[in-house]
Amino acid sequence: QVQLVESGGALVQAGESLRLSCAASGRAFGTYTLGWFRQAPGKEREFVAAITWSVGYTVYEDSVKGRFSISRDNAKNTMYLQMNSLKPEDTAVYYCAAANVPYYSSSIRFAYWGQGTQVTVSS
């Protein structure tokens, strides 16, 4: 069974940086794509970024391009989201998720989810 555990959420001020981690276990993730999603209060969950585990191909939602960076450490089975120049509108619960496909497209199904970590950016 795939398990995903996020950490690193915090309260920060606008302009600061934060790094989220997602520890993955339960499978060999070579054929998986992992992603970060977020959900702000009163809003639907939205895609933030994704990475293919085998080759490290990355994709980002437009509003975070140039500010956020997704990466993975194969040896540690851990995915990261480096968030720079944070804005109040980045405030949300951030979730990591996994899809059992080796490529990313907007139609792939992320079947496994973590419990989420809160990121709050004050102005």
Give keywords.
123 residues, mainly beta, 11 strands
Element layout with pairings:
Blueprint: E1 3-7, E2 11-13, E3 18-25, E4 33-39, E5 46-52, E6 58-60, E7 68-73, E8 78-83, E9 92-99, E10 112-113, E11 117-122
Quick recap of the structure?
The chain has 123 residues and is mainly beta.
Description:
This protein is mostly beta strands and 123 residues long. 0% of the residues lie in helices and 50% in strands. It is built from no helices and 11 strands. It has strands at residues 3-7, 11-13, 18-25, 33-39, 46-52, 58-60, 68-73, 78-83, 92-99, 112-113, 117-122. The strands form 2 sheets. Strands 2, 4, 5, 6, 9, 10 and 11 form a 7-stranded mixed sheet that branches. A hairpin with a 5-residue loop joins β5 and β6. It is globular, with a radius of gyration of 13 Å. The termini are far apart. 32% of the residues are buried. The model has no long low-confidence stretch (mean pLDDT 96).
Strand percentage lies at over 45%
| Overall helicity | under 10%
- Outline the biggest β-sheet: 7 strands, mixed
Number of strands: 11
Span between termini: 40 Å
Query: Which series of helices and strands comes N to C?
Result: EEEEEEEEEEE
CA-based gyration radius: 13 Å
Structural class, by secondary structure, is mainly beta
Q: What are the low-pLDDT stretches, counting only 5+ consecutive residues below 50?
A: none
Shape: globular
Tally of helical runs: 0
